[in-house]
Amino acid sequence: MKCFVLGAILCFLPLTFSMFFGDHACVVSLKGFLTPGEYDEVSVPRDCINGTLRWNYPTEYAIVHFSPNTGKNFLVCIGKSVYKFELFDITGGIRQPITYGTCLEPKNSKVSIEIHASKSLLYQWNIRYYIDIKETGATERN
């Protein structure tokens, strides 16, 4: 029994630390329960280089803008998700489907994605993102 309690404490310790000491500024919440035809549009804080997009009761679609304050070339990388929503790169006004786990190049120091919720209502959808800062090699699309 003592091993079980110790194991449970060790499992939940990282979660507890992240809840109380994590970087909540980089958790971007999307508006839920959108009516048909409505969408949410948010910008990730410029100083966030990794974080989470969180969408409670996702419906319709959302647009997320990334324009990090890196001063260098960068890529915006989208993590993986259990629930497969449709993702589109809409950077520069061109709408292209993207897959989870992909990195996107900026145009004019900005990346924008469009996320379409599934037809069945979920409680919550989360996906990690991070900014891959490049010393050289990553170039912007013009």
TrEMBL record:
Signal among keywords: yes
Signal peptide region: 1-18
Highest taxon above the source species: Eukaryota
Keyword annotations: Signal
Full protein name: CUB domain-containing protein
